[in-house]
């Protein structure tokens, strides 16, 4: 089988969904615990700083455009240290994948099917990931293209439907958190949102057909993914309040439970679960 290649558009979509990942469900509570209603400000700053991180990743990729991140490590650091860091990197990705499968199991058992064992969800999802890996990066990229429009459509509908529940008082006063809390929360946000983007160097630019467009895609995917998380965080605070958001394990799922239009459109929180499963599928595969 020849080398598999994906388009820059597909890479942009992968970057977007990968950056969202588990953050769409867990980030609102994680950063609201410390800085309350200023969480949305932290998210904005975190996304801006993440672009600098992406620039660093692109600079690293430009030095070895035909190599993956693991191969580049060996070339730059030498055979011994390169293999050592590569083993550490691969080990971390496997541990991260296991953590994501755990999140899937906990979420589905807690919110959707409480009588089903956690392991059952993790096992079913792992089978999907293994099968996608077997089919290769090209098929995976096409599946991301299929999931992306559905993800964005559901997200837009979700935002429109929850907007009537917004209470602007929940986000006031602003800039109340201390600078120390802000700094630590920014690091926490970036650790979930942008630090893991280094994994994309396994496919960028070595498996992308147009490198110049892929560079733009790296930025665009990060920006749009960041905007999605900023909106989710802001809506969580505006609708649920900072205290309620911080106390919930999955605030954005609780948002979907609040949707009620004319006693007709109700209990559509499972669509929120579908959005999350789309993004976590991308992150677990990578």
Structure description:
It is a multi-pass membrane protein. Keywords: Germination, Lipoprotein, Membrane, Transmembrane, Transmembrane helix, Transport. Helix 2 crosses helix 9. Helix content is 74%, strand content 1%. It has one domain. It starts with 7 loop residues before the first helix and ends with a helix. A two-stranded antiparallel sheet has the order 1-2. It is mainly alpha-helical and 286 residues long.
Query: If you average the pLDDT, what whole number results?
Result: 85
Query: How many runs of DSSP E, i.e. beta strands?
Result: 2
Largest sheet: 2 strands, antiparallel
Provide the low-confidence segments as ranges.
none
What is the count of structural domains? Answer: 1
Q: Work out the strand percent.
A: under 5%
Q: How many alpha or pi helices? A: 12
Q: State the shape.
A: globular
SSE order, one letter for each helix or strand: HHHHHHHHHHHEEH
Q: What spatial order of strands do you see in the largest sheet?
A: 1-2
User: From the helix content, strand content and strand pairing, which structural class follows?
Assistant: mainly alpha
Rg result: 19 Å
N/C terminus separation: 21 Å
User: Which percent range fits the helix content?
Assistant: over 70%
Compact summary:
The chain is mostly helical and 286 residues long.
What are its keywords?
single chain; 286 residues; mainly alpha; two-stranded antiparallel ribbon; 12 helices
SSE arrangement:
Blueprint: H1 8-20, H2 23-35, H3 39-63, H4 69-77, H5 79-112, H6 118-135, H7 137-162, H8 179-193, H9 211-240, H10 242-247, H11 251-257, E1 260-261, E2 265-266, H12 269-285
Antiparallel strand pairs: 1-2
Helix pairs in contact: 1-7, 1-9, 1-12, 2-8, 2-9, 3-8, 3-9, 4-5, 5-6, 5-12, 7-12, 9-11, 11-12
């Amino acid at each position: 089988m020849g080398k598999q290649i994906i388009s820059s558009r597909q890479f942009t979509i992968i970057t977007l969904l990968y950056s969202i990942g588990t953050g769409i469900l867990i980030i609102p509570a994680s950063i609201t615990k410390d800085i309350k209603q200023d969480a949305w400000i932290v998210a904005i700053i975190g996304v801006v700083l993440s672009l600098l991180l992406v620039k660093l990743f692109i600079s690293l990729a430009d030095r070895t455009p035909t190599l993956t991140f693991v191969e580049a490590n060996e070339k730059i650091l030498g055979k011994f240290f390169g293999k050592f860091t590569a083993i550490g990197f691969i080990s971390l990705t496997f541990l991260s994948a296991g953590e994501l499968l755990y999140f899937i199991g906990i979420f589905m058992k807690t919110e959707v099917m409480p009588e089903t064992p956690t392991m059952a969800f993790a096992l079913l999802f792992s089978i999907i990931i293994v099968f996608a890996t077997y089919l290769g990066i090209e098929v995976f990229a096409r599946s991301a293209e299929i999931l992306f429009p559905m993800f964005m459509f559901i997200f837009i509908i979700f935002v429109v439907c929850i907007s009537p529940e917004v209470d602007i008082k929940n986000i006031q006063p602003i800039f109340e958190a201390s600078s120390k809390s802000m700094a630590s929360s920014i690091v926490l946000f970036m650790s979930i949102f942008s630090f893991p983007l280094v994994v994309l160097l396994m496919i960028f630019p070595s498996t992308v057909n147009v490198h110049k467009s892929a560079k733009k895609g790296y930025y665009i995917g990060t920006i749009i993914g960041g905007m999605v998380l900023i909106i989710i965080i802001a809506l969580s605070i505006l609708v649920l309040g900072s205290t309620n958001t911080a106390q919930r394990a999955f605030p954005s799922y609780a948002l979907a439970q609040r949707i009620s239009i004319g006693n007709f459109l109700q209990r559509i929180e499972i669509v929120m679960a579908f959005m999350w499963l789309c993004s976590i599928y991308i992150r677990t595969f990578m």
